[in-house]
């Protein structure tokens, strides 16, 4: 079966993948349909007519809720069409201030909160606030199947982008750790295949961030005061150079975390976006390691 045809993943869940494959979207955005007679659509994806038609065909008059993990342009714009055509209720969290990456077409009557439940006669979804990728990111746990819809919080085998200023690496790591308190048997990410060993993957992702943080500190020790552009090839020497531009976001997120922890300091103020930003290790940190 073509991966672009709807696929049944479990008794309650179908997946429809949008045709927006790319460097940042992998094989395309995954849209999930949950339920039997009354459906919730999780992450309607981009507003691509063929994709919306596929969701509507699969949902066949049963779509009652349209839920978004977050409001990035590859996750929520499809909501408008779906809601217009079905009268479904929109559920999610909308950012007050635009951080420059938000889909402004998505709106809700009330922002969802951590622990909120959508209980239907057929299933229960629990909202779990998972800031990090962006501040208004929520995962949704399908309690009936211990399946977590993870949006851009996790992807199999690779790190997701943490997008400052609304994204925050410290919060991201806390959000990952928080997931370990839930009974989760599998993770359905916004991009890519199901993750069937969630705990192992969560630990891998946490370890990987600390490995990267070690490389950031090592590069600052080696190069001294440096721009992000100068640091990227050292910190991401294991990543293909075509991805180095995007990696600057992750590097920036690492540096902002290290700044909060008083390990690194910005020496030249930010220039849109981060072209002129220079960083070095703090004197206190350098003293503490040379002692
Ligand atoms: Zn995103």
Descriptive account of the structure:
The chain has helices spanning 49-59, 78-86, 169-179, 198-223, 228-235, 244-260, 283-290; strands at residues 7-8, 13-17, 30-34, 39-42, 63-67, 89-91, 117-119, 124-129, 138-142, 147-151, 186-189, 226-227, 264-268, 278-281. With 291 residues, the chain is α+β, with helices and mostly antiparallel strands. The chain contains 7 helices and 14 strands. The termini are far apart. The mean pLDDT is 93. The longest helix has 26 residues, at 198-223. Helix 3 (169-179) runs antiparallel to helix 4 and helix 5 crosses helix 6 (244-260). The protein has 2 domains: 7-196, Ribonuclease Z/Hydroxyacylglutathione hydrolase-like (Metallo-beta-lactamase, Chain A, 4-Layer Sandwich), CATH 3.60.15.10; 206-290, Arc Repressor Mutant, subunit A (Orthogonal Bundle). The structure holds zinc ion. Zinc ion binds next to loops. The site of zinc ion has 4 residues, from loops.
- Percent strand equals 15-25%
Mean pLDDT: 93
Strand order of the largest sheet: 1-2-3-4-5-6
Can you list the ligands bound to this structure? Answer: zinc ion
Q: Into which percent range does the helicity of residues fall?
A: 25-40%
Rough outline? elongated
Which architecture of the largest domain does the CATH hierarchy give at level 2? 4-Layer Sandwich
Question: How would you spell out the order of helices and strands?
Answer: EEEEHEHEEEEEHEHEHHEEH
CATH topology of the largest domain: Metallo-beta-lactamase, Chain A
In CATH's first tier, which class of the largest domain applies?
A: Alpha Beta
Task: Specify the oligomeric state.
Answer: single chain
Low-confidence stretches: none
Radius of gyration: 20 Å
Structural class: alpha+beta
What's the structural domain tally? Answer: 2
DSSP helix count?
A: 7
Largest sheet: 6 strands, mixed
């Amino acid at each position: 079966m073509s991966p672009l045809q709807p696929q049944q993943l479990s008794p309650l869940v179908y997946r429809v993948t949008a045709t927006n494959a790319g460097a940042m979207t992998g094989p395309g955005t995954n849209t999930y349909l949950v339920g039997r007679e009354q459906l919730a659509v999780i992450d309607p994806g981009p507003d691509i007519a063929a994709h919306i038609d596929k969701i509507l065909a699969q949902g066949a008059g049963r779509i009652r809720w349209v839920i978004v993990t977050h409001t990035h342009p590859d996750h929520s714009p499809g909501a408008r069409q779906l809601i217009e055509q079905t009268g479904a209720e929109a559920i999610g969290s909308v950012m007050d201030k635009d951080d420059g990456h938000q889909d402004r077409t998505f709106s809700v009557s009330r922002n969802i909160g951590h622990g909120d439940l959508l209980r239907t006669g057929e299933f229960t979804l629990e909202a779990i606030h998972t800031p990090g990728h962006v501040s208004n990111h929520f995962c949704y746990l399908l309690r009936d199947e211990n399946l977590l819809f993870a949006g851009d919080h996790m992807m199999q085998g690779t790190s997701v982008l943490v997008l400052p200023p609304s994204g925050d690496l410290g919060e991201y790591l806390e959000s990952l750790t928080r997931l370990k308190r839930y009974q989760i048997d599998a993770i359905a990410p916004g991009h890519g295949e199901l993750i069937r060993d969630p705990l192992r993957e969560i630990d891998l992702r946490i370890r990987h961030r600390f490995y990267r943080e070690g490389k950031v500190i090592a590069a600052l020790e080696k190069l001294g005061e440096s721009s992000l552009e100068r640091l990227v090839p050292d910190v991401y020497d294991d990543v293909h150079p075509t991805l180095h531009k995007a990696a600057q976001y992750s590097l920036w997120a690492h540096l902002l975390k290290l700044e909060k922890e008083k390990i690194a300091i910005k020496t030249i103020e930010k220039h849109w976006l981060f072209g002129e930003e220079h960083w070095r290790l703090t004197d206190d940190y350098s003293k503490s390691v040379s002692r």
